[in-house]
Amino acid sequence: DAGVHVVYGLVSLKTHAKLSLVVREEQNGIRRYVHVGTGNYNPKTAKLYEDFGLMSADPILGEDVNKLFNQLSGFAPQSTFNRLLVAPKTIRPGLLDKIQNEIYNHELGKPAYIRIKLNSLLDEEIISELYEAAKAGVKIDLVVRGICAFRLSKVADFQNVRIRSILGRFLEHSRIFYFHDDGKAEILIGSADIMDRNLNRRIETLVEITESAHKEQLIQILELSFSNQFIHWKMDENDRWQHVSTDTNGKTL
Q1: What is the sign of the dihedral through the CA atoms of 187, 203, 55 and 193?
Q2: Is 16 one of the catalytic residues?
Q3: Which residues contact 84 (CB under 8 A, 6 or more apart)?
Q4: Confidence (pTM)
Q5: For strand 241-244 and strand 232-235, is the pairing parallel, antiparallel, or unpaired?
Q6: Which of 16, 106, 173, 180 is catalytic?
Q7: pLDDT digit string (tens) for 61-86?
């Protein structure tokens, strides 16, 4: 009624990305401000869910998000991005490339490490590539709050995969993707779980984290997720979940 242009997204694709873009005319010209989140813009779940959000005035990221909004409005059907992976086109191939890069680095004798935190892990192609990485010798940590179709029994002999689930006071809802990348620590956060519907039938985004302080904070979260000082579930070598609530002395964690 006020004259605002409202865009409802693309037919047949659910818009699941959590993005905000503010474009301001300032003294030095047009400037873009961006927020990319892992959680919904919902005042109720914001009090109950654990999530991450990145606020940025980075011109490169601003251009990426601007292109994506233009895509969603039908103004730019073909776009390439610098800091974003966007489903249904680039999240799957982007993640597969990063997993394969860890395999390649391991084969060259370099450290190789993959750490992923998400809600659900179901996609067969991504899981298959993670199996190949584990068999190649890449160290893998998976924190999966909900459905996990990765079977530890398939790679248990290699002793390089850990799988946990954390169910606590807040709903674990953030998605973090960490790739060692020969010490450069490539890290992405975003809205996408590793499921067919997220990768093929939704508009999803993952954003590359570039600030070292932000990377350190996310790495700390991943390390705390595998700390034995907290209650957790862990998958054993027979694909059974074990609840760990006490330490070796029987003290409650």
Answers
A1: negative
A2: yes
A3: 61, 64, 65, 68, 205, 206, 207, 208
A4: 0.96
A5: antiparallel
A6: 16
A7: 999 999 999 988 877 667 899 999 99
